[in-house]
Design a protein that fits this description.
This protein is α/β, with parallel strands linked by helices. Among the domains are: 18-175 and 257-269, Rossmann fold (3-Layer(aba) Sandwich), CATH 3.40.50; 320-538, Ribonuclease H-like superfamily/Ribonuclease H (Nucleotidyltransferase, domain 5, 2-Layer Sandwich). Helix content is 48%, strand content 11%. The protein starts with 17 loop residues before the first strand and ends with a helix. It catalyses: DNA(n) + a 2'-deoxyribonucleoside 5'-triphosphate = DNA(n+1) + diphosphate. Residues 17-272 form the 5'-3' exonuclease domain.
């Protein structure tokens, strides 16, 4: 395998005269639409600049040439508008957030040391045509980096195109496949078919396929128009005769001008490496840290050996496809042998369901190297039973061939969202195969960049590989036309599925080298990767639900809602739809004249929870009852009714823990969501009573006590809070005594509790005042008193905001980065929210990391203790277990010991445990 080229070093060895012409517009718009909005430290939009830099840099790493230039468009008006004044008239202005990026992208091109070419009055395509002609006439060859169909007319001996997305060359054969004619007839096909994108009129009713047939039959456009009267089809004959002049005008519009006065001589297009200091300065100025790392420029311009984008791969292995379809045992064994030699393999599954516990295995994708991947169909339907060659393998036979590879400790299996695939492969229906050892690119990305962007495979591919994978909808269709993946034709299924394994393996090569230098290796290896197996086991275990009790709760909630509805109608003075915010707003603010109402953007009164709570605080009875009714309605629909529908055949519900959603590292659960059941309300407790232990078992709940406040005392190093926790005092009562003085009653403790948690969440005077029912001025006085009593907390908050602004992230007490979006925003509201997030992130993130540390240790501790308890749920700071009755006490003590011992802080960790026949009793 040869090393990828470094953009920082000149090409050595013989290089023929080869000119690469990059279609700059294609790169710009592809980057802009592929990446989410982002700004540089000055607040200027730069998502297109960032994408452009990555695409250009990666291209330079993969390809060598003697000459190279990026060609740009200038103004929209060109000589073609004189031919046809409506040319491109239907094009809208570029998005306003893209406009300031055009000049920055030109600066980026200069920073990379690549010549850029543009000329007023002419399109980039005309300049590409001109330079291609001049260079070939001078004895060289040309590669045009673009997938633009307009440029395909330039393909000929010495001139080829390269699709920048698929990394596939486009020659005469590919042009013939697309247009049905040779490249020299492409413009004539376009003249007949027209182009609505550029407002090229063409001939109505004539498409590309028909145009190609007519041109092949008549030999050319003028011969066709001259002989149009001989065409037998009346409608076709009529439109060609009527619109002959439009076709001629269209030909002038689409034919590229290869004789434009060149704005720069060919000698100025010589390829040269960039000046490291200039390139690193540009990238650093715009905050492109990952790009600096990728090209080895972290040291302020002193280049190291640039890390290959996809590891050490040969340039001809970098294309995405074509991929192999494996249909025989012999071919599959060859893949297994290749993977065994490689010691690493990308792995992905195709199934018929997003529910891993119910999904049937349709096929398996394997990648043994970047660009070298295959698809193994197993349960596709509609295949030809009379085919002389097998269309797919027997699933059982295939699994038995793969089983040794999947268990081979010397071969690392790389997956994306490994929990799903491992669950699918581990089920008996799919062969019950164990896969180990594994790597998970989703969790690698999450360990590096939580809060910075999403971690789905497609997004990461676009961001790190500048490649947009084939969408699922493209393979299966959409809406009513969607077909199951098992019905997708094998060629399409292979292109889609094998690409996923290929992308996954490439992401591994790109992302994992960052783990150690960015201090994320321990987070990934010791926590996130180990959590995959822990959560897989928890999801499979599920938790038993008492359907009879759930039905009883639903009936009781329904009765309560009906009673509240009657009371509400009496208070309102008339019946109305309680589920209609519009009708409620009219009653509260128009009919009853309550003050403090605010209108939404649509002009309707706002009746969200905050608005109703404010009215309730003023002493109005109606909003109090509405809030109570809404709580019952939400609990009934979200939990009671939904839970009943999600009870599986084993009498249990199996939630899906999402591992890479939150910015702080906390897990989230879906299908059903078990993390938002109210803890301290009677209604919430009723629902928890429906979660029960299996016969002969008990539920054991272990809950970290005030963990975020303990982290606050640890990080801010507040002596009085440390003392209170060390002495196991009630922290809220202690805070009340310190802030308010005098005896501490229930109200003082409540206010102190609100303040303690409000500070962690960065709450200001307005928010605290609303929570306490006091003025913002009074709340400001309380906050000032709080910080005067605990100055270390204010210092810590200021430090966190400063850290976020300087680096774009804050760290948990254990060193994990949490990226803070919007911290450099010029918009005060966005920046304020980001500052509050920066203050809260270390506490939430630290709490998440502590409980995850416990979760990865507890299964082994249980096994070593000879206990058969199973961990079922993680809900915020609580773990829930199911243990045989005789082991409940031992399980509770083990959970307490492990959970309190996973971290050493300046204050002790405390875990409260309980047992019971149902979750409410155990909590």
């Amino acid at each position: 395998m040869s090393e990828a080229l470094s953009i920082l070093e000149p090409v050595t060895g013989p290089v023929d005269r080869h000119l690469i012409l990059v279609d700059g517009s294609g790169y710009i718009f592809r980057a802009f639409h592929a990446l989410p909005p982002m700004t540089n430290p000055a607040g200027v939009p730069v998502n297109a600049v960032f994408g452009f830099c990555n695409m250009l840099g990666q291209f330079l790493q993969k390809h060598a040439a003697s000459h190279i230039a990026v060609v740009f468009d200038t103004a929209r008006v060109t000589f073609r508008n004189a031919i046809y004044d409506l040319y491109k008239a239907n094009r809208t202005d570029p998005p306003p957030e893209l406009v300031p990026q055009f000049s920055l992208i030109r600066d980026a091109t200069d920073a990379f040391g690549v010549a850029r070419v543009e000329l007023d009055g002419f399109e980039a395509d005309d300049l590409i045509a001109t330079y291609a002609r001049l260079f070939v006439e001078d004895g060289g060859r040309v590669t045009i980096v673009s997938s633009d169909k307009d440029l395909m007319q330039l393909v000929r001996d010495g001139v080829q195109m390269l699709d920048p997305i698929k990394q596939k060359p486009i020659g005469a054969a590919e042009v013939m496949e697309k247009f049905g004619v040779a490249p020299d007839k492409v413009a004539e096909v376009q003249a007949l078919a027209g182009d609505p994108t550029d407002n090229v009129p063409g001939v109505p009713g004539i498409g590309v396929k028909t145009a190609a047939q007519l041109l092949t039959e008549f030999g050319g456009l003028e011969a066709l128009l001259a002989g149009a009267h001989t065409i037998k089809q009346p409608k076709r004959r009529e439109v060609l005769m009527t619109h002959a002049e439009a076709a001629r005008i269209s030909l002038r519009l689409v034919t590229l001008d290869a004789h434009v006065p060149p704005p720069a001589g060919i000698e100025t297009l010589l390829a040269r490496p960039p000046e490291p200091a200039r390139l690193s300065g540009f990238l650093r100025h715009h905050g492109f840290r990952t790009t600096l790392h990728r090209f080895g420029l972290e040291d302020g311009g002193t280049p190291r050996a640039a890390a290959p984008v996809l590891g050490e791969v040969s340039p001809d292995a970098l294309g995405f496809g074509p991929y192999l379809t494996i249909t025989t045992a012999e071919a599959l064994r060859e893949v297994v042998e290749e993977a065994t030699i490689a010691g690493i393999i990308g792995l992905d599954t195709e199934t018929d369901s997003l529910d891993a516990l119910a999904a049937n295995l349709v096929g398996i994708s394997l990648a043994t190297a970047p660009g070298r991947a295959c698809y193994l169909p197993l349960r596709h339907t509609g295949l030809d039973p009379l085919s002389p060659k097998p269309d797919q393998m027997d699933p059982a036979e295939a699994i038995e061939i793969l089983r040794p590879l999947f268990r081979d400790p010397s071969v690392l299996k790389i997956l994306h969202n490994a929990k799903y695939d491992l669950t699918v492969l581990g089920r008996a229906e799919n062969g019950a195969v164990e896969v180990t050892p594994i790597g998970d690119t989703m969790m690698v990305s999450y360990s590096l960049d939580a809060g910075r962007h999403g971690h789905g495979m497609d997004e990461l591919s676009i961001r790190h590989l500048t490649h947009r994978p084939i969408p699922y909808d493209e393979a299966t269709g959409t809406g009513r036309a969607r077909i199951p993946f098992s019905a997708v034709a094998l060629d399409k299924a292979t292109a889609y599925a094998a690409e996923d394994a290929d992308v996954t393996l490439r992401l591994w090569h790109v992302l994992t080298p960052r783990l150690r230098p960015e201090a994320a290796l321990a987070t990934y290896e010791l926590i996130e990767r180990r959590m995959v197996g822990v959560l897989k086991a928890m999801e499979a275990a599920g938790i038993k639900v008492d359907g009879v009790e759930l039905s009883r709760i639903g009936n009781d909630f329904g009765v309560a809602m009906a009673g509240l509805e009657t009371e509400i109608h009496v208070l309102a003075g008339r019946p109305f739809n309680l589920g209609s915010p519009k009708q409620l707003g009219e009653i509260l603010f128009d009919e009853q004249g309550l003050r403090g109402g605010k209108r939404t953007k649509t002009g309707a009164w706002s009746t969200d929870a905050a608005a109703l709570e404010e009215l309730a605080a003023q002493g109005h009875a109606l909003p109090v009852k509405i809030l109570e009714w809404r709580q019952y309605a939400k609990l009934k629909s979200t939990y009671v009714d939904a839970l009943a529908a999600q009870i599986a055949g084993d009498g249990r519900v199996h939630t899906d823990f999402s591992m890479a959603i939150t910015s702080t590292g906390r897990l989230s659960s879906t299908e059903p969501n078990l993390q938002n059941i109210p803890i301290r309300t009677e209604a919430g407790a009723r629902i928890r009573r429906a979660f029960v232990a299996a016969p002969g078992h008990m539920l054991v709940a272990a809950d970290y006590s005030q963990i975020e406040l303990r982290l606050l005392a640890h990080l801010a190093d507040v002596p009085t809070l440390r003392e209170a926790f060390a002495n196991d005092e009630d922290i809220h009562s202690r805070t009340a005594a310190d802030i308010f003085g005098g005896p501490v009653d229930k109200e003082a403790r409540r206010r102190a509790k609100t303040i303690n948690f409000g500070i962690i969440y960065g709450m200001g005077a307005f928010g605290l005042g609303a929570r306490l029912g006091i003025s913002a001025g009074e709340a400001r006085g309380i906050i000032d008193a709080y910080f005067a009593r605990y100055p270390g907390i204010r210092d810590e908050m200021d430090r966190l905001k400063k850290e976020a602004k300087e680096h774009g992230f804050v760290r948990t007490p254990f060193g994990r980065r949490i990226w803070i979006e919007g911290i450099d925003s010029k918009i005060q509201g966005i920046r304020g929210n980001a500052e509050r997030a920066a203050i809260n992130a270390p506490f939430q993130g630290g709490a998440a990391e502590i409980i995850k540390r416990a979760m990865v240790r507890i299964p082994r501790a249980l096994a070593e203790a000879g206990l058969s308890a199973r961990m079922l749920l993680q809900v915020h700071d609580e773990l829930l277990f199911e243990a045989p009755i005789e082991e409940a006490a031992a399980t509770a003590e083990l959970a307490r010991r492990v959970m309190e011992g996973v971290a050493t802080l300046r204050v002790p960790l405390k875990v409260e445990v309980g047992t019971g026949a149902n979750w409410a009793e155990a909590h």
